[in-house]
# Entry
Amino acid sequence: TQLLEQSPQFLSIQEGENLTVYCNSSSVFSSLQWYRQEPGEGPVLLVTVVTGGEVKKLKRLTFQFGDARKDSSLHITAAQPGDTGLYLCAGGTSGSRLTFGEGTQLTVNP
Amino acid sequence: GEEVAQTPKHLVRGEGQKAKLYCAPIKGHSYVFWYQQVLKNEFKFLISFQNENVFDETGMPKERFSAKCLPNSPCSLEIQATKLEDSAVYFCASSQFGSNSNQPQHFGDGTRLSIL
# Structure
């Protein structure tokens, strides 16, 4: 069974601070997807990384896929209250099913 | 449509009753996935379809759970003889090319199933 460990589980920071969320596994994934979920809604895809060592930037968000494709990180620079939400990493495997991490509940205080 | 549409948004059933959830994938998407989100945000894969054919059912409980995707109809997930532990939010997702795990999956807003 493939598992994704996501940390931290909860994160509360002040507006303007930087933060990093980690997603780790002992298994290799063919892709790693990051989602953001708001209460009462489904996850919304932020980015997909597929190549070991790949780095993608989305405004103030930077996503990295580990060289061995077993881990990933999400870094947010100068966090804003609008960044508040549940961030989920999900690993893609053959057969296309996604294996989700437990999520990081981020709260950015004004 | 441009979004994955799930109905109903909320469903309440007494223990032992049947529950049926529906999902209309994005038009043109060939793959449909069902996930169960329980406490602590844990997502569990249930089943996937390629058009009307089961693609991967390794996550489906052997008993009580069934799913279908028939032509020109919304996909459905049915739970017979519901139990308290079936209470969860059930998400449907669709993708254009599901056999490649790099393809993004687009999620609906889920059906919250409450078993009393």
User: Anything to note?
Assistant: The two ends of chain B are 34 Å apart (CA to CA). The longest strand of chain B covers residues 43-50.
